[in-house]
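R.M. (postdoc): so does anyone remember the format we settled on? I'll just put the structure tokens first.
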């Protein structure tokens, strides 16, 4: 009956396992780059569809990662579809399991919005191109049980497509993305010093005049459709559709 030699045990000695992990961490610190790990905080999760349209990102944790896809971005790249130009850059980052528990999941603290492993849906800020990447898949067996343990995660990331999530991490470069890209009209409401919103007679909030959806969405044509549906060629006024941001498809 075949069996392994019981006098040599190469997979249960914790000292050798820690040594291998120390060498991997040191290698990542030498050849890697310091990124920011941003866990997703669920606000209103839809259990049926498994999504959260109101998710926010309010914390950023610096942690070193190794860029495994050194030949450049992978994925579909610049993809021209019927919906316009889409940039689907992907890359693979390697992160130490121990360093993740030290910097992000400290002492089993689950209040940071993450578990004891990197989660799909969390973000990583890549400082070389100043972009946010969303975690699509986490491979926890990248190095297959070297010395009987697992030391790293291989994280497959794709360029993050911003869709009006709240970014309040305290990092100026990250929070500026929300300021530049958000089309949320509620962010332009007029408030007093205490943060109370000034409302009109119908209960809706008063919005600053400098709010234009065209400033954040180049594909928006609200003002064009407003002109086309209110001023006819004969000089008459149709006024049959309200194309304002608060009621883009409602009738007057």
């Amino acid at each position: 009956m075949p069996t392994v030699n019981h006098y040599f045990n190469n997979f249960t000695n914790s000292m050798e396992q820690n040594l291998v992990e120390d060498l991997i961490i040191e290698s990542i610190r030498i050849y890697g780059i310091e990124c920011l790990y941003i866990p997703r905080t669920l606000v209103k999760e839809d259990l049926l569809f498994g999504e959260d349209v109101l998710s926010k990102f309010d914390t950023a944790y610096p942690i070193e990662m190794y860029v495994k896809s050194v030949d450049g971005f992978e994925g579909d790249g610049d993809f021209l579809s019927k919906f316009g130009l889409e940039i689907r850059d992907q890359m693979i980052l390697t992160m130490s399991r121990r360093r993740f528990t030290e910097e992000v999941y400290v002492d089993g603290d689950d209040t940071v919005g993450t578990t004891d492993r990197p989660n799909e849906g969390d973000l990583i800020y890549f400082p070389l191109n100043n972009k946010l990447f969303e975690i699509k898949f986490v491979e926890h067996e990248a190095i297959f049980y070297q010395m009987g343990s697992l030391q790293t995660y291989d994280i497959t990331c794709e360029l993050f497509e911003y869709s009006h999530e709240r970014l309040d991490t305290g990092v100026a470069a990250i929070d500026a993305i929300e300021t530049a890209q958000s089309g949320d009209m509620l962010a332009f409401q007029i408030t007093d010093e205490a943060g109370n919103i000034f409302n009109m007679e119908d209960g809706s909030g008063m919005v600053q005049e400098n709010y234009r959806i065209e400033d954040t969405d180049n594909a928006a044509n609200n003002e064009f459709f407003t002109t086309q549906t209110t001023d006819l060629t004969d000089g008459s006024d149709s006024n049959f559709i309200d194309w304002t941001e608060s009621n883009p498809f409602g009738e007057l």
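R.M.: ...and that's the designed sequence above, right after the tokens. Also worth knowing: Residues 14-181 form one domain. The chain is about 20% helix and 25% strand.
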